[in-house]
Amino acid sequence: MEQEKESARGLAQMEGYLLWNAEIEEARRQARRFTDSLPWLTTAQRDDVERIYVADRVEVCRQTLTRIAGRAVELRGEYTARYDRLRARCVALSVLTVGAAAGTCAAFALIGR
Hints:
Helices cover about 90% and strands about 0% of the residues.
């Protein structure tokens, strides 16, 4: 069981790594496409613009992912609390139902004597 959790964690980390690298590569492609539309830039200027563009895009992605991860943690807590309340209600209802059924059976048994 622990080994499965460790494997799942490793796969999730690898997936995150690959997705992040794909995002960085996409930012580089978009930066190149942007600088290609500015033919008057020198090579040094083009490199600077691309570097700044990629850095800005990576920072925006990082902030977005941080917000999403934080919200996911909040939602997990909310749903766990709701699940716990629902489970408690179901258990209470089950106990009441069993108690009522047992009481009814006992009443019929007493009446039937």
